[in-house]
Amino acid sequence: MTGDLDGSIQYKQKALDIKAQAAHKSGAIPPRILVPDSTMGTKKSKSGVVSSSSNNMYADIEQRIAQVTDSTHLSFDSTQIHKASREAKMMAVAWIMVCKFDCRLYGGFVRDWIVGHFIGRPKNKTVDQWIQYDNSTAHLHPEIVPADLDCYLPAHGLSDIDEILDELGKLQMTVNVHRDQWRYLLFVDQNTPTGPFTIDLIIPHIGIHKYDRIDFDVNNLYVEKNYTKHLGMRIDITYAPYSITLEKIVDNIRKNRFYLLAGVKSTPCGKVIVERIDKMKTRGWQQLDNALPPVVPSGGPSSNVELKPVPNTSSIYQKILQKMNSAFSGNKLEIVSIEEIKNVELQSMYEQARKQIQKQTSLSDGNEMMLYHGAKGENIEIIFRCGFLDRIYRYGNWGKGAYFSDNPKCVHTRTFPDANDNDKRVIFLTKVLMGNVQKFNRHKINLISAPDKYHSVHGTFPQLPNSDEFIIYRYGQALPYIKITYKA
């Protein structure tokens, strides 16, 4: 069962800048086995990779890590899990997200359950009182431990929410889901005797990769598929002045203490950090006195973006010119420039999306189409640097998504003359992976994803030929290829 939780997303939205983000290549520590201090340095290969077991000191942690990361072993009975404890259900869902959908699991669940094995319940509250409402926004009571699962979807970002809901449905779990710009928020088992929990499904895109933030050292851990005894760090804090190792983080969790690694005076995150500190202390955690400076985000890998002028003698230039002249026939048109966009990061995500669609279909090229998209204002730079982010999606006749057309005249209405730049307009010629396409000739304004078993929508207007619209709903399926600057 699915439903809307429009208010509940607002509560977590305010913590966006300090919400635990998934690791990326520039700042993460890859997963490794925990090593007792007494043997540190004696059980590593020349490459520095720990190769042996950590004996019994971390055996309980390793067991719980394996239960959510070992894709070869199912540690629960899918036909009986609905009768199990809340924590057993969360472990089962964690295994599904990590092993079936290739997510990284991080945040509070890794801290509180996989490492700490803590359970907390609010005093004098029945299960049906666990969900609280502040100014009409919904969230779980702060004393509930563990509270949620934070999952970072894989790079291609094409895991269909319906597939995930189907898997949870097989476990006889009920789910309310809300789609946000960069994630899904799921409330699971809201009306069951064991009590609800939430799942954050973070959708990857370049905008999130640009920086990572961290609040406390104990929130810096993650686990991933088939690293069955291993913990990783989202952000490297092993260097001075922090010098915090995995083993130190685990020790702090076991002793209910933490280091503050974020500035409380920063705006707008300072207030949220203070709230998080108070929440930890309410749960019995101790803030260590060491006055460590805030961890400064590394900024991530620099965006390798290049706009390369297309020679007016080239075939691609001439084809675009012909298409534009034909579309704007009878109207004054001036092509100012045609530039090819080179964006290594977007290209990589796009190819990952193609591979994912190829696995799901018999389409060797992912059903790639060359389509047009009109843009204006700041969205122009956002598109060629970061791609078609969810936050620039618009609502149209077929719901909220990225809209394209095979007719540049149709997307002209989505542009706007830049008064500060001689009234120039911009249209992008875009490579779009349509995959399996659902065709509609009637409006479906409530869509937030392609229909089940489909990757995109083709909307038609029977009375308006040459005005078809093509819509995708997932980041990574579209690659801005050519930037066309013109006047009309």
From TrEMBL:
Tell me which UniProt keywords the record has, alphabetically: Glycosyltransferase, NAD, Transferase
InterPro entries, sorted: ARTD-AVP, Poly(ADP-ribose)pol_cat_dom
| Domain PARP catalytic, residue spans | 293-488
What is the enzyme's main class? transferase
Q: What is its EC number?
A: 2.4.2.-
Q: Does the keyword rRNA-binding apply?
A: no
A single GO cellular-component term from the record reads: nucleus
The terms under GO molecular function for this entry are:
NAD+ poly-ADP-ribosyltransferase activity; NAD+-protein mono-ADP-ribosyltransferase activity
PANTHER family reported in the protein's UniProt record: POLY [ADP-RIBOSE] POLYMERASE (PTHR45740:SF2)
Full protein name: Poly [ADP-ribose] polymerase
Tell me which species this is from.
Answer: Rotaria sordida
